[in-house]
Amino acid sequence: MATTKVTITLDDEQLSAIRELVQSGKAESVSGFVKHAVDVSLSDLAGWGVLLGLALEETGGPLTAKERAWADAILRQRPKARRARKAA
Questions:
Q1: To 5 degrees, how large is the angle CA 55–CA 57–CA 58?
Q2: Which of 11, 16, 27, 76 could share a disulfide with 21, CB 3.0–4.6 Å?
Q3: What pLDDT, in 10s, does the model give residues 6-64?
Q4: 8 near 34, Cβ under 8 Å?
Q5: How is residue 59 annotated by DSSP?
Q6: 3-class secondary structure for 5-58?
Q7: Around Cβ 27, how many Cβ atoms within 10 Å?
Q8: In this predicted structure, what is the pLDDT of residue 85?
Q9: How far apart are CA 21 and CA 17, in angstroms?
Q10: Rounded CA gap, 63 and 69, in Å?
Q11: Spatial contact of 15 and 27, defined as CB atoms under 8 Å apart
């Protein structure tokens, strides 16, 4: 399988945790850990796609344009910021 070297950006804490796993022998290398994480993520997404397809078949099929617009509007909403209460 061909490979390509890429650059990614991680939080400092994430990279430190990965390096600790490598140092302790729980991961082979930083690259190996990231490759494994990508494999798991892609597999999860594929699995969720299958589950979603089955659920849609059991519940009436794909979303209509109106249903999709409603769902998109709900999912785009951001929680309202809480206001600080004044001390009495």
A1: 65
A2: 27
A3: 999 999 999 999 999 999 999 999 999 999 999 999 888 888 878 888 888 888 888 88
A4: yes
A5: T
A6: CCCCCCCHHHHHHHHHHHHCCCCCCHHHHHHHHHHHHHHHHHHHHHHHHHHHHH
A7: 19
A8: 67
A9: 6
A10: 9
A11: no
pLDDT of residue 60: 86
HSE-up of residue 80 (Cα within 13 Å, Cβ side): 3
Q: Which amino acid is at 5?
A: K
Task: Please state the rounded mean pLDDT for residues 62-76.
Answer: 89
Give me the amino acid identity at 19. Answer: R
Which residue's structure tokens are 């999860």? 44
Whether 13 contacts 20, CB under 8 Å: no
Q: How far apart are CA 44 and CA 50, in angstroms?
A: 10
